[in-house]
Amino acid sequence: MLYDRVADRMSELIARGALRPGDRMPSVRELARQERVSTATVIQAYVQLEARGLVEVRPQSGHYVRRPVTALPEPRPARSSSVAIRPTVAHLVSKVYKAIRDPRIVNLGAAFPSPELLPTEKINRLLAQVAKTAGGVGVMYDPPPGCPALRRQIARRMAHVGCAVTENDVLTTVGAMEALDIALRAVTKPGDTIALESPAYYGLLQLIESLGIKAIEIPAHARTGMDLDALEDTIRTHTVAAVMAIPAFNNPLGSRMPDDAKARLVSMLAAREIPLIEDDIYGDLPFEGDRPRPAKAWDRDGGVLLCSSFSKTIAPGYRVGWIAGGRWRETIEQIKFAQTVSTATLPQLAIAELIDSGGYDQHLRRLRRALAAQVTRTREAIAETFPEGTRVSDPTGGFVLWVELPPGVSAVDLHARALERSISVAPGPIFSAKQRFSNYLRISCGLPWDSRVENAIATLGHLACDLSRRSS
């Protein structure tokens, strides 16, 4: 879009220091003359710059470069734990998800992007088109491994990031959760112990709980992810059936594991023949630069089961995910057929068409910019309104923030008080098999920044300040 190009040029001037914090930006008419575009284009460009958190509007004065907000430190990692336990988080998770259906609630608890950020009209139009042309294929079962056109597109995309995955290695699933469930069933049995990051996405903990598996929590850093020294100690002293990890923009930490660490992780587990279940659902959402290479790129013996979906980037409700199961490929196909028989055909065909046409990459560029801006604005608002002693993650991709509140502030109490004011957040204890992180919470930045979201963050800050005063 023309306004994107104007916004990009102004962003570059700000980044280079030609326009400094506090400087007045050119007026709409002035910039329109400079760029030889319409005033409507400039207005849209300024909307983009506001969304990115680079400029602010001052009534009766114009647009100004935003001043930097005092940075908050990152949350501290969890302590190591050598005890394997069965997670019990389902009852807490249900409280978070009950809020999703209520349109009155500002949903900062569940991690999915707003339909406004997704290619909603385009993908629905493609779905209608493929429904007209698919004939009987569209209404029949699509038995494992799933839609050839989509599997081919997935394999091509993985080849671009160094993964030696063919379309025959890929199996489509009902979202990433089915992919992870199948992966766990393929490599573990009830009573086994797995190792996973701490904090961990509560969906993984629910899966583990439902399958009767025990978990050992491995500390993770908000910037670099799983502590591999702690993991190495664990697999040396415990019988571990598998390791689960989210190397690219971990949920809830937002961490990004460095390439040398991913190589070490894969090599360490391969030496002990321990499978790695890799959740790569946020891999397509870096704020800048190239897409991170999955740990699967360093897999030489098929020991990594790579799982992902299009729920965070295209359409959560289409429920289209996939798994590249390595040496467990045949077992995975059998489990898939026994569990759900097939994945819905038409959504797979529509997504394949979106990718093949180039529309997916075009959409990703816009989505990444929007999410980066929303994360930045949310972090700034937290710094301005939350109590002294608050820490918050600084992710380089995805769209969730991990917030450490001052000691004594109960995230469960904050969650309850926020719900009374029609605001949903995800309290820290649901991200731990041992229900640790009592003074942590996850905030989703999937909603476009507006006055409603701004007021919700401010209200959370005031509630947290009140709880902090009461606990001191």
- Provide a count of the helices: 15
Indicate the proportion of strand residues: 5-15%
| Percentage of residues assigned to helices | 40-55%
At CATH's second level, what is the architecture of the largest domain?
A: 3-Layer(aba) Sandwich
Gyration radius over CA = 23 Å
Structural class comes to alpha/beta
CATH homologous superfamily assignment of the largest domain: Type I PLP-dependent aspartate aminotransferase-like (Major domain)
The N- and C-terminal alpha carbons lie at a distance of 52 Å
Number of strands: 16
CATH class value of the largest domain:
Alpha Beta
Largest sheet geometry: 8 strands, mixed
Query: What is the number of independent domains?
Result: 3
Strands side by side in the biggest sheet: 4-11-10-9-8-5-6-7
What do the pLDDT scores average to?
92
Give the topology.
Blueprint: H1 2-16, H2 28-35, H3 39-51, E1 55-58, E2 62-65, H4 90-97, E3 106-107, H5 120-134, H6 148-160, E4 170-173, H7 175-187, E5 193-198, H8 202-210, E6 214-221, E7 225-226, H9 228-237, E8 242-245, H10 259-271, E9 276-279, E10 304-309, E11 321-324, H11 329-340, H12 345-356, H13 359-385, E12 391-392, E13 400-404, H14 411-420, E14 423-424, E15 426-427, E16 440-444, H15 451-471
Helix pairs in contact: 1-3, 2-3, 5-12, 6-12, 7-8, 7-11, 13-15, 14-15
